[in-house]
């Protein structure tokens, strides 16, 4: 059975890229079809998914030898774990008691037009009261919790390619 799912790192990186694009498509669906406006932390998580997907796509297109696979694997894991850190912050905000939730900030359009870039990035990474609202759940877990699980799986998939030597081209 294990032989049936044993792929080259190139195929695994391509599958990781497709997974990232699926996550972004789901985010677009929830935003544009379901009408759920993303908060600053949601947008930050999307950017981390995009960055992880780009690392995976470049790795799949490049099809490097072992040294390159290791570099791409570590880079993919770093971007995925950065996204996981953002997701952890988001889940933490959602579990705060209502009296401890930070105040809601201005809309992202306003922030992008009127605040310096450093302040905008700080807001996007720290979150606002909007980020504490749970709009959607599946099996009792919010969207940021599912995104955290996805980031951890992507980081694991990425790092496993370092060990995936048997089937890659040496």
UniProtKB/TrEMBL annotation:
It is a multi-pass membrane protein. Its main location: membrane. It is found in: Cell inner membrane; Cell membrane. GO terms for biological process: protein folding. GO terms for molecular function: electron transfer activity; protein-disulfide reductase activity. It comes from the Bacteria. Pfam families: DsbB (PF02600). Residues 1-12, 65-70, 165-170 are cytoplasmic. Keywords: Cell inner membrane, Cell membrane, Chaperone, Disulfide bond, Electron transport, Membrane, Oxidoreductase, Redox-active center, Transmembrane, Transmembrane helix, Transport. Required for disulfide bond formation in some periplasmic proteins. Acts by oxidizing the DsbA protein. This is Disulfide bond formation protein B. The lineage of its organism: Bacteria, Pseudomonadati, Pseudomonadota, Gammaproteobacteria, Methylococcales.
């Amino acid at each position: 059975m294990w032989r049936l799912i044993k792929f080259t790192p190139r195929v695994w990186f391509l599958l990781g890229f497709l997974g990232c694009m699926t996550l972004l498509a789901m985010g677009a669906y929830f935003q544009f079809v379901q009408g759920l406006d993303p908060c600053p932390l949601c947008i930050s998580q999307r950017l981390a998914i995009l960055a992880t997907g780009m690392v995976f796509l470049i790795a799949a297109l490049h099809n490097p030898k072992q040294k390159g696979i290791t570099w791409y694997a570590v880079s993919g894991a770093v971007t995925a774990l950065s996204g996981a850190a953002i997701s952890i912050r988001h889940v933490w905000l959602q579990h705060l008691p209502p009296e401890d939730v930070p105040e809601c900030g201005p809309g992202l359009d306003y922030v992008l037009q009127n605040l310096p870039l450093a302040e905008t990035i700080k807001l996007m990474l720290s979150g606002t009261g909007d980020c504490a609202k749970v709009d959607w759940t599946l099996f009792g877990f919010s969207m940021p919790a599912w995104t955290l699980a996805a980031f951890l799986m992507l980081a694991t998939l990425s790092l496993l390619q370092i060990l995936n030597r048997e089937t890659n081209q040496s």
